[in-house]
Amino acid sequence: MRKGAETRERLLSIAETAVLAKGFGATSIEELIAEAEITKSGFFYHFKDKTELARALIVRYLEADEVLLDDLFKRARELNVDPLHSLLIGLKLLAEMMADLPEGHPGCLVATICYQERLFDKDIHELTRGGALAWRARFVRVLEEISEIYPPNDDVDLVEVADLISTIVEGGIIMSKALREPEKLAAQVILLRSYIKLLFSPRPS
Amino acid sequence: MRKGAETRERLLSIAETAVLAKGFGATSIEELIAEAEITKSGFFYHFKDKTELARALIVRYLEADEVLLDDLFKRARELNVDPLHSLLIGLKLLAEMMADLPEGHPGCLVATICYQERLFDKDIHELTRGGALAWRARFVRVLEEISEIYPPNDDVDLVEVADLISTIVEGGIIMSKALREPEKLAAQVILLRSYIKLLFSPRPS
DNA sequence: GATAAAACTGTACCGGCGGTACTGTACTCG
DNA sequence: CGAGTACAGTACCGCCGGTACAGTTTTATC
Fold first, then answer.
1. A118 pLDDT tier (thresholds 50, 70, 90)
2. For residue B36, which nucleotide's C1' is closest to its Cα?
3. Which is the CATH superfamily of the domain at A1-48?
């Protein structure tokens, strides 16, 4: 029972790395079991087919993601009660976290799945959509709180601004990879911070 | 000679659609030749292996991309001589173009390749990097021109701002797909426009 | 209208992979 | 001690990428 869960975890870890590096379709079960040092039977004991592996991968990924962001923005909240400054601190912490990945961000599973739509069923797409909506909900809440205190300097939809955070993280990951500049992601998050600052900071009048 | 190029083009078109929808590794040569109505021998006459298909795909993609952007920002330039307003118009045209894709943006080949690094050789990665750098160069030029007239309202690196454009397009495509909201991409580009506006517009003092 | 090159088709084969099916077995928890 | 858990072993199927190579039709060119 305990050992089973451990093997499953190891399989998922190996699979996640492989999928982010080569895509889901190009990741063979054989290479996974070779690295995990188990047999094919062992694999199919844990996952009835490749689709179930995919489902388990995203569920695990989204859960870890949520825990990570919860923690990060809770810390940011503790450092400053003002919602705007708390968000700005949170974005700085986020950028620092990204910058601390020496090999660069390994990639986002949601993005991989979106770029291989036809390989996955509606079920899995619903999960990735849920992940994106969770980010949106998290930041819309904060942005509304901010805009009540600091009226925005431009006529923008707060839902769009919330989604911009996801957009820049996803885009930043790709740009980091494309340019082979691991620091790019953090730098783009800092630029997002600059936008939030300009958007909500009271103008000198 | 003429007919050969035509078949090659048809193959590339079919392959591009398939790769963007399923990833490179999951795209089989068999399905491509089935849709193109040729035989396997025909395929290998045009491309000596799958890797050469990949190379031809990006080269074609990047060339088309360049032509498209050249045209778009040339039109923007003709509508307004001021570099800031010209860029803002250009971004609006870009957003409109994105919004005109009824099924949403089909996806960016550079992103697909980045998310399947291990499948491609250094050669191909150099091509995608070149594509990203071309976008950067294009916009850095304009941004420098702008900042000479309108000093930026925040201390930002213009290279980062230039890369932000690519970041938001790449991220916007993913968010459009993840949320299944085709309009998302255009909306995020418009938000980028809002940032450029806030960054360079003279503050009322 | 002959000729050569271009643009394929046809056939046959290899090894790897996803997936299925079923049997056997070591470990472990109650 | 017995029942489930967590695998290992073996055998097999069909699809796919890739190779090899011979044959055939189409097309441009002189």
1. confident
2. C8
3. Homeodomain-like (1.10.10.60)
